[in-house]
Amino acid sequence: PQDRVHLHGPSRDHDSRSPSDSISLPPSAFAAVPTLSVYRKSPRPCPNQALVDELAVLRSWRFLQHGTGAPESISYATAISAIIGAPKIDNVEQARKLHKVGPKLLIKIDEFLTTGKIAESEETRNSAKFKALDEMTSVYGVGQKTAVELYENGIRSLEQMRALDRWPIGFKYQEDMQIKMSRADCESVANFIRIQLDRVEPGAHTVLLGGYRRGKTHSSDIDLLCTYPHEEGKEKGILSRLLYRLLAKGLIPEDGVLWSSSFASHNVAPERASTRSFDSLDKAFVIFRHPANGITRKRDYFRRVDIIITAWSTFGSAVVGWTGSTQFERDLRQVAEKKGYKFEAGGLFDKQTGVRIPTLTEKDVFRALDIPWL
DNA sequence: GGGCAATACG
DNA sequence: CGTA
DNA sequence: GCCC
């Protein structure tokens, strides 16, 4: 998720470079780059794409060493995000004006501007430990902590991990889950699910979110948001019916429901079920079997799909919350907090009263928080 | 020196 | 702790 | 690592 690049409209991730980018801008233009990602565009590729690619290695390295939530990691993520939102950098004085880019980053940027690369990035890419941790965390259920622990115990490869027999599901579908999906693949998977959804709840509506919506050409998973337009409450129960149907049709393997709020509530104590925050969205993380079509798919492929259900009245919040990127969500919450709101994918709330502001559309969220639509 | 987004749940 |  |  950290590779997600944020943007605002559905066309947010398109190349927005222009001929004027070849002209060197005054440092003041860089000081004008907004501090938070919600106030700037994030084109991809961006004008500083080669630099970003180099710095991204160091960001990954920090993620693997300290976790994505560690300050060392967040500082790199925010700095890279700022660079993504900046015009073409061709001297250090410009970079110096960017918010969130400090002395340490400037040294790296300077090196890149003079040599065209960053030595530490290259070393990191080739380091055995980096490669081992990177590979180990690719297994579903294995995060940074576990990978570091495994490494300390001498584990270095997927083969060694497999022998431990601790992640049966992770390894069962590991191979397919490494293969990224094209946008056409994402759309095809979504359409398979829509057909079944229409059988259990005609009139229900779905949209593809996540990296796909941000314009990524390839995705490692699919985020599918489902609602029932204009009829509050009619979305209730959709998830379990849909899951049962997908299971019955073999579109989800028997062991393919990795997690589901809906299914869980079956064997859950009633009081526990009602304890659930009434705003939290129903969701299921599944393995979807994408049937072969004999043309673009010679065989079935197993894909990670997240299915999320939202009430119509909070559809906008759900769209914003499940589109990302990670950085965008962080910055959005900061803005909400500062303006007396609390934002979650389940809704936008007044911090004082706890009252939920209706957010039928994505623009309702932006409007309430006074964030421009870029 | 404190803060960095946020939270439900298995 | 891991996942979203 | 960067900002307040």
| Residues in helix, % | 40-55%
Give the H and E element order. HHHHHHHHHHHEHEHEEHEHHEEHHEEEH
How do the strands of the widest beta sheet line up side by side? 2-4-7-6-5
Write down the Rg. Answer: 22 Å
- The best one-word shape is globular
Strand content: 5-15%
Examine the secondary-structure arrangement and name the CATH architecture of the largest domain.
2-Layer Sandwich
Q: What's the main sheet like? A: 5 strands, mixed
Output the CATH homologous superfamily of the largest domain: Beta Polymerase, domain 2
CATH topological fold name of the largest domain: Beta Polymerase, domain 2
Q: Gap between N and C termini, in Å?
A: 22 Å
Structural class category:
alpha+beta
Average pLDDT reading = 90
Number of strands: 10
The helix tally amounts to: 19
CATH class of the largest domain: Alpha Beta
Q: How many domains is the backbone divided into?
A: 4
Low-confidence stretches at least 5 residues in length (pLDDT < 50)? 1-19, 264-278
Give a brief description.
With 374 residues, this protein is an alpha+beta fold.
Describe the structure.
This is DNA polymerase. Belongs to the DNA polymerase type-X family. Residues 1-18 have a biased composition (Basic and acidic residues). It catalyses: DNA(n) + a 2'-deoxyribonucleoside 5'-triphosphate = DNA(n+1) + diphosphate. By secondary structure, this protein is of the alpha+beta class. It folds into four domains: 26-124, DNA polymerase, domain 1, CATH 1.10.150.110; 127-167; 181-309, Beta Polymerase, domain 2; 313-374, Beta Polymerase, domain 3, CATH 3.30.210. Helix content is 45%, strand content 13%. It is built from 19 helices and ten strands. It has helices at residues 27-31, 49-66, 71-84, 92-96, 103-115, 119-126, 128-136, 144-152, 158-164, 168-172, 174-178, 183-200, 210-213, 238-248, 261-264, 270-275, 315-323, 326-338, 362-368; strands at residues 181-182, 205-208, 218-219, 221-227, 257-260, 282-290, 301-309, 341-344, 347-350, 356-357. A five-stranded mixed sheet has the order 2-4-7-6-5. The protein has a three-stranded antiparallel sheet with strand order 8-9-10. A hairpin with a 5-residue loop joins strand 9 and strand 10. Helix 2 packs antiparallel against helix 3, helix 12 crosses helix 14 and helix 17 packs across helix 19. It is globular and about 60 Å long. 35% of the residues are buried. The model is unreliable at 1-19 and 264-278 (pLDDT under 50). The chain binds three DNA strands through residues 1, 62, 69, 71-76, 78-79, 99-105, 140-146, 221, 223, 258-259, 261, 264, 276-277, 280, 283, 285, 306, 308, 322, 326, 329-334, 336-337, 342-345.
